[in-house]
Amino acid sequence: MSCSTNSSGRAGFAWALLALLLLSGCAPTGRQRTVVLETRPRTDIIAVLPVQNLTGGRAPLARVAGLVRSSLELSGFSLVGDDALEDFMRKHRVRHTGGLNAFVSRAIREETGATAYLVTSLEAYDTQTPPRLSLFSRLVSSGERPEILWMDSVGVSGDAHPGLLDLGAVYDPEVLLTKGVRCLADSLGRWRGYAADEVRGASPAAYPACGPRAELSLLSPEREADKQHRPRILFRSPTLGSGQSHRVAVIPFLNLSDRAYAGSIVTLHFINQLIRSPQLSIVEPGLVREQLLKYRVIMEAGPSLDNAETIGGSDSLGVDQIVSGTVFDYQDEVPIPKVDFSVNIIDATIRRLVWSSRSFGRGDDRVVFFDLGRVYTAHNLASRLAWGTFDALIR
Amino acid sequence: MKTRDSAQRRFVAPLLVLLLAGCASDDVYFEPNMDFGSLQTVAILPFQNLSGKEEAGERLRNTFMSMLLATGAVYVLPPGEVARGLGKISRMPPSGPSTEQIKELGGILGVDALITGVVKEYGTVRSGATSANVISLSLQMVEVGDGMVVWSASSTKGGVTMRDRLIGGGGEPMDTVAVKAVNELLDKLFR
After folding, report:
1. What residues make up the domain containing A216?
2. Which of A45, A74, A170, A228 has the highest Cβ tally under 10 A?
3. So what's the pLDDT on residue A71?
4. Contact B84/A346, CB-based, under 8 Å?
5. Which of A305, A340, A342 is facing B81, going by the closest CB pair?
6. pLDDT value of residue A4
7. Does A392 lie in the same domain as A284?
8. Does residue A57 lie within any of the structural domains?
9. Which residues on chain B are in Cβ contact (under 8 Å) with A230?
10. Would you call A358 and B66 a contact, using CB atoms and an 8 Å cutoff?
11. Which alpha helices (H) appear in B23-98, and where do they start and end?
12. Which member of A304, A326, A356 has the closest CB to residue B81?
């Protein structure tokens, strides 16, 4: 009897120990921050612009746009009708769908009733095995002074999470596309519900299928510990004080790589990171493009100090910092992605270069054992490198 | 006996040449009368590219610019500003600017010195079944006041090492080799 009691006591102790270990496994690793975010403005009606093609080849743009529309409708957003938007685009002869200028932005509000418009850029759509897909999306307020309200991106690859016996591998590009669009729609939905969401200590691992989450980058302990993707070469002027507020224009990066549109893609990666800082106000790329066209600014090697002053001093932008750069490599075709770019920041008020950095990396930089730590897409690698630069900038 | 002596001489002579080559002075030139501490702002002109790799000059120029700025010793003009200055002077020969053009460019850009460079090698070298990345770069600094060369140095990094031959692996990545080459040049500039 006593033996039985002892054995049940030991068993109880073992179960308690096991439960304690399991519970400790659920505890968050690293520092957990609590951030109270401000209430976001309501976006009542959204116009979903046709998808911008940055793939450098043919891509099912209409299919992507249709999926984005249906995903947003499922998430409860009200959208401008297809016909109304098409009529508007035709009337104003809008060809560039990567952003709208101030005039068209005001017109879209007045004529379609859209309080915001969604700009979606398809970076990569590869149907080869394993399929790959990369998308950027941003929500911009309509009206005379368009501002970026929300932005996120997703880079997914069919072989990123193969699991046991490749059971988790995705071979159908359509499945990947649906998953990618869903990731973005969910992110937009979470943004809309931020007023009630006070604690965001979640790990990027909470969204494994969506790649590194830019929206969580400021808060995640894993990203804080990621020193691998910080700039390899860095100059920071003492005049570039931390904690000061700046209005920043990101000029399309110069593309010296073999990948078409790599300059525009890395520009979007940067904007995607920079908008996370409450100290920085980022000019909507559609307005930057408008100014460059208006003043006929041609930059063969990046902006000159005069260019910076022209862009910065223009009434509609009113920026004090100009971010530019050069993309040397953006390889997504090979099994191991490779990205290499430089970033320069010119302070337009003092006409001086205040930041210069160079970042480069390969998808297998962190691999030490089999494929653990491998980055499968150039999109995710560039996103991490852009985060590394951003992290060094805001510190 | 005589045959043995001549065979020894044939072996020893090349060995001596190799040993003496190791004692050769390094490839750095400093203008003795130049006060390098007075240099505050410099402009780096596009490097002349003699390698087969397109854009090698721009890649190395960018690496050098960022690393020189990172030293904090001098301020380097942004490449767009240099391009603006180059657009204002008469056509520059591929071998580099003339003395008059250097003075003119210095006045337009408001810099104390110009840095020009030549990329001699940028690519992969093979030795048997082994290959590795190699970079060879030479730079010179010209003072804009009188157009005189005040500093010149070169660096070659990378290539097939004994480790590459034994273990393989294809040598170091090109970016790492570039950083090493530029680092060596900066060491030669600031020593």
Report:
1. 33-225
2. A170
3. 92
4. no
5. A305
6. 41
7. yes
8. yes
9. none
10. yes
11. 56-71, 79-88
12. A304
| Same domain, residue pair A271 and A195 | no
Confidence of residue A2 (pLDDT cuts 50, 70, 90): very low
Residues A356, B63: C-beta atoms closer than 8 Å: no
Q: What is the ipTM of this complex?
A: 0.80
Burial A102-116 (b: 16+ CB within 10 A, else e): bebbbbbbeebebbb
pLDDT band of residue B13 (cuts 50, 70, 90) is low
Q: Can you tell me the distance from the alpha carbon of A158 to that of A154, in angstroms, rounded to the nearest whole number?
A: 13
**Chain position carrying tokens 């940067």:** A270
Domains and CATH numbers, chain B: 26-189 (3.40.50.10610)
Lowest-confidence segment of A31-35, A205-209, A320-324 by average pLDDT: A31-35
Q: Cis (ω within 30 of 0) for the bond into B32?
A: no
My answer on whether A215 and A166 are in the same domain is yes
Using one digit for the tens of pLDDT, what is the confidence trace for A136-160? 999 999 998 899 999 999 888 887 7
Q: Of residues A186 and A195, which shows the higher confidence score?
A: A186
**Which chain B residues are closer than 8 Å to A234 by Cβ?**
66, 70
Interface check for B76 against chain A (CB to CB < 8 A): the answer is yes
Residue A1 covered by a domain: no
- Chain A CB contacts of B177 under 8 Å are none
Residues of chain A positioned with their CB less than 8 A from the CB of B75: 352-353
Q: What does A301-354 look like in DSSP terms, one character per residue?
A: SS--HHHHHHHHHSTTT--SEEEEEEEEEEE-SSSS-EEEEEEEEEETTTTEEE
Q: pLDDT digits over A99-120, tens only?
A: 999 999 999 999 999 999 999 9
Nearest to A364 by CA among A327, A328, A334: A334
**Same domain assignment for residues A386 and A262:** yes
What does the angle CA A205 – CA A206 – CA A207 come to, to the nearest 5 degrees?
A: 85
Whether residue A338 has pLDDT greater than 60: yes
CATH of the domain at A368: 3.40.50.10610
Q: Measured between alpha carbons, how far is A96 from B132 in angstroms, rounded to an integer?
A: 44
Say yes or no: B173 contacts chain A, CB-CB below 8 A.
Answer: yes
**Mean pLDDT, to the nearest integer, of B85-96?**
80
In a domain, A19, yes or no: no
Give yes or no for residue B124 having a pLDDT over 80: yes
Q: Give yes or no: residues A221 and A234 share one domain.
A: no
Model confidence over A259-290: pLDDT tens digits? 999 999 999 999 999 988 888 899 999 999 99
What pTM value is reported for the model?
A: 0.83
Chain B residue numbers with beta carbons less than 8 Å from the beta carbon of A357 are: 66
Cβ atoms within 10 Å, residue A284: 25
A137 lies in the same domain as A203: yes
Q: Which residues of A touch B (CB under 8 A)?
A: 232-235, 256, 299-307, 324, 326, 328, 340, 342, 344, 346, 352-353, 356-358, 360, 362
Q: Tell me the nearest-neighbour CA distance from A330 into chain B, angstroms.
A: 14
